[in-house]
């Protein structure tokens, strides 16, 4: 997946609105559209996209620790927000946009530094104006559950 390094690398609003959210996500995964710069910043990327489901992989590094030396909750939250909201995005029709209204994170155990995880978002509901998804973070090697989340997104028709 190609990552945006400057604002001009990102798709224009007109380009984004010309395709469904699923098409957008699939083109991003294929490297035809630039991925989000936050993925490079926080060490994660999309690895799977299908209708109603998106998977990201990443690993927390020392840069993401809080003063106690454990992975900051914001890292968990960002990965869950990304996978859950992108699961909603796969259901957004051409000519519409979406954004997160609220999300909740439950951390069940600390992720060891440098351990690869998968953050999976799965759609629960996609209507005309809202989308709801759940997410979980699991260790790739151990399969253990490290966090869960839920989100509500607003879907807005632009064109």
Automatic annotation (TrEMBL):
| CDD domains recorded | PaaI_thioesterase (cd03443)
Keywords (alphabetical) are:
Hydrolase
Q: Which residues form the Thioesterase domain?
A: 68-138
Taken from the record, one Pfam family name reads: 4HBT
KW Mitochondrion (keyword) present: no
| Superkingdom, taxonomy of origin | Bacteria
The reply to whether Hydrolase figures as a keyword in the UniProt entry is: yes
Q: Which NCBIfam families match?
A: unchar_dom_1
Record's protein name:
PaaI family thioesterase
């Amino acid at each position: 997946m190609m990552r945006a390094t400057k604002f001009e690398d990102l798709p224009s609003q007109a380009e984004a609105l010309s395709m469904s959210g699923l098409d957008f996500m699939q083109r991003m995964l294929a490297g035809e559209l630039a991925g989000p710069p936050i993925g490079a910043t926080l060490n994660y990327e999309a690895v799977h996209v299908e209708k109603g489901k998106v998977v990201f992989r990443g690993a927390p590094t020392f840069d993401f620790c809080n003063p106690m030396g454990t992975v900051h909750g914001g890292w968990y939250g960002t990965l869950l927000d990304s996978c859950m909201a992108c699961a909603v995005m796969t259901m957004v029709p051409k000519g519409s946009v979406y954004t997160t209204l609220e999300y909740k994170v439950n951390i069940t155990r600390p992720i060891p530094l440098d351990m690869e995880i998968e953050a999976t978002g799965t759609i629960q509901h996609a209507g005309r104006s809202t989308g709801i998804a759940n997410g979980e973070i699991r260790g790739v090697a151990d399969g253990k559950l490290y966090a869960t989340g839920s989100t509500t997104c607003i879907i807005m028709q632009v064109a």
